[in-house]
Amino acid sequence: MKVFMITPTGRRSSSGNQATAVRWRRILKRFGHRVTVGSDWDGSDADMMLALHAWRSADAVKAFRRRYPNRPLVLALTGTDLYRFLRSHPAKTLSSIELADQLVALHDLAHQMLPRKYWKKFRVIKQSAVPVKRQQPRSRTFDLCVSGHLRDEKDSLRAAYAARNLPADSQIRILHCGRPYDEKWNKMALDEMKINPRYHWFGEVPHWKVRQVHARSRAMVLSSRMEGGANVVSEAVMADLPVLASKIAGSVGLLGEDHPGYYPVEDTDALTQLMLKAEQDSSFLPALTRQQQSLKSDFTEEAEFAGWERLLKAI
């Protein structure tokens, strides 16, 4: 089957969506399909369209459906679709949702943002991650990692702000890997390091280096204001790395409502207290790890491939 995958590019596109496109192209090719990836549909013949982002891919979705009314069209709903554009640009976003045969999202609560009439064509395919062997953490510091590009949706410096308020005898450090969205974020991170000795920003680094940071950190902080289903959660679960997360649907839909490591979104003081609990309560992080270990089967490659196999059989 010839598949045309739409993944919007440009300054406003999410690198997370680009990474998702790469992994889905690999999966579809494993099933024997031929996959073309583009930022817009060029009108070429295709047996199926897979479009990432309902709002940004709306023109391509409409054009494909007009040309091929009976060919399958699969739409992946991103975090900005679910938590921004359904409110700010509902007509265009819902138009894509209406035209799609199948809707794909990355976490269990995403359907709650949609009108109920679309739930019947909604399915969740969680992203997998390769297990990482834990390494002995540093004894002189209590390292918490942040993995993700610096941008507003990620509330990227919240862990750094929370670390400012720690008592002097705390050994907590924040180790942050991620590319700045723009020069403003670059300056904010550099300025934060100047005034905050607990914050260490490494910029964009290779994924193997990120995995090394994960392996030696005590926990991960995921401070996002919105998420479509962050792959760093999959990586943390498979690495037995406890997650301290803002309580948003995109994280609850992966970690579960009963995850003990949540704090209210943008609540710096609450995050400070949660980080201190991680450092001072010897039972807290092991309990988080055990909770996450029960979720590992959700994030295996086998589970992700099975999800795509079921979807392809349904279209």
Chart the SSEs and their pairings.
Layout: E1 2-6, H1 15-30, E2 34-38, E3 48-52, H2 58-67, E4 73-76, H3 79-88, H4 90-99, E5 102-105, E6 122-124, E7 142-147, H5 158-164, E8 172-177, H6 183-195, E9 199-201, H7 207-216, E10 219-222, H8 231-238, E11 243-246, H9 249-255, E12 262-263, H10 268-280, H11 284-293, H12 301-314
Parallel strand pairs: 1-2, 1-3, 3-4, 4-5, 5-6, 7-8, 7-10, 8-9, 10-11, 11-12
Helix pairs in contact: 2-4, 3-4, 5-10
In the sheet with the most strands, the strands line up as 2-1-3-4-5-6
Number of helices: 12
Helix content: 40-55%
The CATH topology of the largest domain is given as Rossmann fold
- What is the terminal separation in angstroms? 12 Å
Low-confidence spans: 10-14
Mean pLDDT: 95
Please, how many domains? 2
Overall number of strands: 12
Q: Nearest-angstrom radius of gyration? A: 20 Å
Q: CATH H level of the largest domain: which superfamily?
A: Glycogen Phosphorylase B
